[in-house]
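Retro notes, structure queue

What went well: the backlog is down to a handful. What didn't: a couple of records were mislabeled last round, so from now on we paste the full input next to the output in the thread. Example, using Kinesin light chain from Effrenium voratum:
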Amino acid sequence: MAEVHVPTFAMVNALKMDKAPDPRVFAVQELGDLAAEASLAELRGCNGRVRQLLEAEQQTAKELELALAKARAENASTRQCLEQELHEAAVAKEQLQEAKKKRKESQKQLQECERADMEGTDPQRHRLQDLLSQARTLIASNGDRAAGANKLSLAQAREAASMVQQLEGLGYADDELYRALLQLGLQNLERHLEHDHPEVLACAQSLAVSLENLGDKNTAVKFYQRVFESRSLRLGKEHPETLDSAYNLAVCLRGLGQVDEAEALFRATMRGCQSAFGNQNPGTLESAEQLAEILEARSELVAAWGLRRQLLEWYRAAYGEEDLTALGALSKLANVLAAAAVAGSASPPAAAEALRAAYSRHKQVLGLGNLDTLSTAKDMATFLSGCGNDPASAEAVLRECVDVCWEQLGACAPETLTSVENLAEHLESKGRIVEADTILRRLANAQRGDLHSTAKSG
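Corresponding output:
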């Protein structure tokens, strides 16, 4: 087929002007058109290749993201397995050591019991057996005040209630037995005495404690409430027994989630104990401690910090600066300040300094190979690696803890396990998953070796 030539712009203009077209002009124009078409085709080809490259890179990026996510999941699973192995190894060693210890103690106790039975020289053991026999006989014969059950005399009711104190004094603990005895004693004491008689209220409070220990807080709180109200009316709100009842009621209410009511009672108890006994009284300190925890849980950090500061002064005055309770108060104060710094209501440098002071004090008094010291080290490292903007110092502290615990206490010690887990958690938070896995594996291998050696020597 013959080619069809499309007239160019120059040819059209020449025809319009009735001039003969110049072949050179046509040639130049055609060359320009061809060059433009070639450039356009080349650009299209380049664009296509670029698009292909971009698509390939996007696909590669997706594959890398999937691979990274898979690797993270595998590492997390591996870390969980390693931590489980570490815990199992530590527990196994502790159980082995505990079994050896108990075996020796059992042998010793057996020898002592045999000797005591032969000589009849163990009055405490015989007293406990007699009390248990009396208590079970009393409960069996009277039940839980079922219909038709025999009524107890006042002396018998008092004896039922007092049996609990006697059993506790002999080191025996059985809240189910205590509950049955106290219910029996209370029901019969109420038959002989006034509703708000001191013996009745004391028995009701003991019953509330047993019920709470058994997990029946809903029933326990009713007895606590009854005792508190009766003592408030009979003795006054600032009487020691009333304050004790208020504290027990507040703790139970808090456990039931009734925090507002608990807070009001803790405040009243703290003020009452301060007024009656001073700042260093256990009632004052325990009420303030509970109140501080409530404020922290509500993120009322400024108020919590003020109360924690007072508590630190009171604990130091009561027990001395190196007492464990005072050291714990120092750590709690630093942690409140750190939480306030994270929330933007305190200075990060001030919080970092407080955490360093708490860690340094624990290290000085208790040493690095102590769980409380390791806890303060972790608190400080967590803050420094985040809001404190000093991850290098955080890691240095955690590594120091690992080195000292491993060297002084061995791979199977709970303190060593805690220090290694703290360091691994820090490394993992920084994306250094391989390093975290490596140190966990190293500890697991060391624990297996120690456990094997211990079992072999035993």
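Agreed that this is the format going forward. Reviewer comment attached to the example: The domain at 318-430 is CATH 1.25.40.10 (Serine Threonine Protein Phosphatase 5, Tetratricopeptide repeat).
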